[in-house]
Amino acid sequence: MIDLQNVAYSYGGGELLSDITFRLAPGSFHFLTGPSGAGKTTFLKLCYAELQPTAGHIQIFNRDGRNLSRDEVATVRRKIGVVHQDCAFLDHLTLAENVALPLMVAGMEPHPDDLRDLLNWVGLRTQAEALPPQLSGGERQRAALARAVIMSPDVILADEPTGNLDWEMSMRLLALLVELNRMGKTVLIATHDLNLIRSAKAQVAARVLRIQNRRLQLAGADL
Ligand SMILES: Nc1ncnc2c1ncn2[C@@H]1O[C@H](COP(=O)(O)OP(=O)(O)OP(=O)(O)O)[C@@H](O)[C@H]1O
Fold this sequence. Notes:
Blueprint: E1 2-9, E2 17-24, E3 29-33, H1 40-47, E4 55-60, E5 63-64, H2 70-79, E6 80-83, H3 95-105, H4 112-121, H5 137-149, E7 155-159, H6 167-182, E8 186-190, H7 194-201, E9 206-212, E10 215-218
Parallel strand pairs: 3-8, 3-9, 6-7, 7-8
Antiparallel strand pairs: 1-2, 1-4, 4-5, 9-10
The structure holds adenosine-5'-triphosphate.
Adenosine-5'-triphosphate binds at residues 11, 16, 34, 36-42.
């Protein structure tokens, strides 16, 4: 699905990520950890073609990630749902409109029943008409997840999806991500939260990747 070979990335100074070889297998569930500033968000951006590697090769759904046309980028983005760290929304649109936005941008109309079911799935059905500033942190995170999956992507990349949430809400969000994985979706979650990883490992065959000293390693079973 996403295949990196000897990938490096630099924002202009020294290399932030070096010699990364990794294949994201269909149906897998991964966590990505590493110290703050190690390059987790950058790694995710490489995976959804927001950034191009400065060295090496990346294949995204069998396309060369370095030479994607605008149409190919749009196609790839439909297959990869991203939950961004900042959960930015358009504040003048309702929650339901924000969640449906990726469909609208692709020129499709959301089916009202489908949208209702999706909001129900993330527990936000009664807040469909709320404006983003009226939502709590946990509600924003769940709305961001709903927006990320509205195009039925094959892969979900989530950047610190439980960043500012209490434990109960983190578990609720994790349960949604585990459910998506059970439905066959490939999930990759960047997180600092080792307790979240431990909880997930009790529910799903999750593997843990770690960025350390610019390299990507598979963490041991001791986490
Ligand atoms: N657009 C940019 N231009 C220059 N440097 C950047 C840019 N974006 C990120 N960086 C730098 O690259 C490094 C890695 O950032 P990144 O956000 O990928 O790390 P992270 O592991 O996700 O961090 P955190 O856990 O704190 O979110 C940081 O030092 C950051 O300041």
